[in-house]
Design goal:
This protein is α/β, with parallel strands linked by helices and about 325 residues long. The chain has two domains: about 180 residues, Formyl transferase, N-terminal domain (Rossmann fold, 3-Layer(aba) Sandwich), CATH 3.40.50.170; about 100 residues, Methionyl-tRNA Fmet Formyltransferase, Chain A, domain 2 (Roll), CATH 3.10.25. About 25% of the residues lie in helices and about 30% in strands. It contains eight helices and 18 strands. A hairpin with a 4-residue loop joins strand 14 and strand 15. Helix 5 packs antiparallel against helix 7.
Length: about 325
């Protein structure tokens, strides 16, 4: 049994949960690699990645290469003499990096591979209305999320779950999967399974402005899945039009009402406390919304300050 000397690579909050679990299980983390600092927000202040914050708080050896093929970085990485690299929500690695440690480099991905390879697996599982998902560990190869699977763990997606809630559940499940994977590697008892592609595989496309926009011509359930699959981040959005005014709004929380009606699709219907948008098979009742330049608010709060006419439309 060989004692593990680990280099961990990751950037967002999801990766922090896994790194924390590795540290608390008393594994020897000899290096942490994360994204370079970048300016963010209106003031363009330099923002550290969540993993960097954690590494600094816990006095871990930190590296932030801008180029993973840079000779100086590669020499520094090699000098650590790690025998295993663990990757969680980082970026594609060049072969010279993932082949470096003797025991290999494995990745934790937040889906049941081969489904949802790509950038946003948690979001797309909900957007597509799936009832289960999970996490997978696999040895990295030259493509994205295609390597030989070490193990996977499954979890149910509840009907009203948001991406934020599922993210936290998968972080806990992922921590267990990573610790179990490391134990197998340490003992030399890993058995892998090759991923097999088929024509029905679902992809975790990168989220962008286009695929986060609500299409009100879809069914109420499809729209609801999009809203919860993008909540709290990056959030589903659409345009509200009324009285020659137009607002770009974000919708964070809603519920589905399935019923027949005579409203045109996209009609905005309000009472003193309720805000609904008509779909082809019912309504989306908006519970939590954000108007431009305003804070996120409950629909009834919004309706205290704005009155929509009968011609109001969501687009």
């Amino acid at each position: 049994m060989e004692k593990l000397r680990i280099v961990f690579m990751g950037t967002p909050e999801f990766a922090v949960g896994i790194l924390d679990s590795i540290v608390k299980n008393n594994y020897d983390v000899i290096g942490v690699i994360t994204a370079a600092d970048k300016p963010a927000g209106r003031g363009q202040k330099i923002k550290y990645s969540a993993v960097k914050e954690y590494a600094l708080e816990n006095n871990l050896n930190l590296m932030q290469p801008t180029n993973l093929k840079d000779e100086t970085f590669l020499a520094e990485l090699k000098s650590l003499n790690a025998n295993l690299q663990v990757v969680v929500a980082f970026r594609m690695l060049p072969e010279v990096v993932w082949k470096m440690p003797k025991l290999g480099t494995f990745n934790l991905h937040a889906s049941l591979l081969p489904n949802y390879r790509g950038a946003a697996p948690i979001n797309w599982a909900i957007i597509n209305g799936d009832t289960k998902t999970g996490v997978t560990t696999f040895f990295i190869d030259e493509k994205i999320d295609t390597g030989a699977v070490i193990l996977s763990k499954e979890i149910a997606i509840t009907p009203n779950e948001t991406a934020g809630v599922l993210h936290d559940k998968l972080m806990t499940l992922g921590s267990d999967a990573v610790i179990q994977t490391m134990s197998l590697i340490e003992k030399g008892t890993v058995e892998t399974t090759i991923q097999h592609d088929n024509s029905e595989l679902k992809t975790a496309y990168k989220l962008n402005r286009e695929n986060c926009k609500i299409d009100w011509s879809k069914s109420a359930s499809e729209i609801y899945n999009l809203i919860r699959g993008l909540s709290p981040y990056p959030s589903a959005w659409c345009l509200f039009n009324d009285n020659e005014e137009e607002w770009n709004v974000k919708i964070y929380n809603a519920k589905v009402i399935i019923e027949n009606h005579t409203y045109s699709i996209g009609s905005i219907i309000t009472t003193k406390k309720e805000l609904k948008v008509a779909t082809k098979d019912g309504f989306i009742q908006i519970l939590n919304i954000q108007f431009p330049g305003k804070k996120k608010m409950q629909a009834n709060e919004l309706l205290n300050g704005i009155a929509f006419t009968e011609k109001a439309q969501a687009q």
